[in-house]
Specification:
By secondary structure, this protein is mostly helical. The chain has five helices and no strands.
């Protein structure tokens, strides 16, 4: 019979591996425990079947192990989130400063960069710890990488007081177009994740210099 509670999730709700306690009903005699998992058939999800582990034991012992594993994940997560909340709070005053000094556009772009960086990192940490779905990485963190790239370009030109050239504008349009056009096809498997990542690297390499 099927145990209530655990279930196969839709693609958008799948998380990184995390522990879960499943209480088995009392049975007498021999029993066969069958476990099911599902990995979506796209390159978006790596077939890491080695991450699927099962531990059997008494309910108190399993619950203690679950609490210890959860506490370890939270400890690692909270320290990183605390730092990037400070980064987030540093970005907000810069936007307020730009409001009072609109001629200094570098304040705006630096504020946008810091806020995007903080949201990107916090979202990634939440997803990688298994607390939020992996789709958050793809649909939140990935677009923010491009927002940060454009913010860096605009900040550099604003800081030195130069007008953005036509070629740079065309480059910025290419940066915006790539995720808008390719994120959904990559998610649904029409193009591979490697193809998307290669295009992203080629687009963003000039920003690094």
């Amino acid at each position: 019979r099927r145990v209530s509670g655990p279930q196969l999730l839709a693609d958008r709700s799948i998380t990184y591996p995390r522990s879960e306690v499943v209480e088995l009903p009392a049975i007498s005699g021999s029993a066969l425990i069958a476990l099911r998992t599902r990995i979506p058939a796209t390159s978006m999800f790596f077939a890491d079947r080695g991450s699927f582990r099962v531990t059997l034991g008494s309910l108190p012992a399993i619950r203690d192990a679950h609490r210890a594993e959860t506490a370890a994940r939270f400890d690692a997560l909270l320290s990183g989130i605390a730092v990037y909340f400070l980064v987030l709070f540093a970005g907000v005053p810069l936007l307020a400063l730009f409001w009072y000094q609109p001629d200094h556009r570098e304040y705006m772009w630096l504020g946008i960069y810091l806020i995007a960086d903080a949201v990107d990192t916090v979202s990634f940490n939440l997803s990688s710890s298994g607390l939020t779905p992996f789709s958050g990485v793809w649909f939140v963190c990935t677009p923010l990488n491009y927002v940060m790239a454009i913010a860096m370009i605009e900040f550099a030109f604003s800081f030195v007081g130069q007008k953005v050239t036509r070629m740079v504008r065309i480059y910025e349009l290419a940066i915006v177009a790539w995720p808008l056009v390719m994120i959904l096809p990559a998610w649904f498997g029409f193009v591979t994740r490697d193809f998307f990542n290669m295009g992203e690297k080629c687009l963003l390499i000039p920003v690094c210099f």
